[in-house]
Amino acid sequence: MQEVASVDFNIQQIADSGQCFRMYQTDDNVCEARALNRSVSIEKKYDKYVFSCSETEFQNFWFHYFDFGTDYGELKRRIFATNDEYLKNAVQYGSGLRILRQDVWEMIVSFVISQQNNIPRIKKCIRGLINSNDGKFPTAADLLQINLDDLHLGYRKDYLIKIAEDICNENFSIETLKEMDCAEAIRYLKQLSGVGEKVANCVALFGLHKMAAFPVDVWIQRILDTYYAGRNPLDEFGLKDIGGLVQQYMYFYERRKIVSK
Question: Domains along the chain?
Fold first, then answer.
């Protein structure tokens, strides 16, 4: 077991933030996180979270996955320093959010599936992919061997097949992608079938941990239109380099406000 303080970390908020589709609430205070072919249960106990893994596994994998090496307290202080009322409220509401360091290939598949889709259905589709591959997240080569017709992927099936073919035929390189800066990575990702501006930004943020990526969906566009006259305020606030984190605070806060009404 490994204990982590709850300062700047809330697994329930992270699980409901839209950046990961392989976290499941198994109890009021317990969440199961799955990544690659690993899984861990995380239980809230008073002011700590207890990870059901050895210290070695935590240090070698989950520490990096949950980005515990980044000082989110300092990043939040930068956002508070803008004195922007909406952003301060959003940060206070989602104070335990972090940007996960997820596998790039998983993020490409996940966010292609996410297009015009709701979260429960996205999770179901991804579970179907994994169950069709002996319980393991399929590689690009694996994907081409799976019968996708029964997984209810709709038009996204053809996108995934074409992306898997491009990777297997070396027309697209994930290793090359990892070496690019944020803007280059987004441009390169948009060469893939079915990957537009929003999905490319999601992959850059949640798979490559490019904090300057800023995915804009209907929720974020509504915020920009309502509170910032349609413009993105990150430049004037000096927050462009952590725009993806700001986006997560905005998204989580706005979505919860609407849902709770």
Answer: 2-69 (3.30.310.260), 104-206 (1.10.340.30)
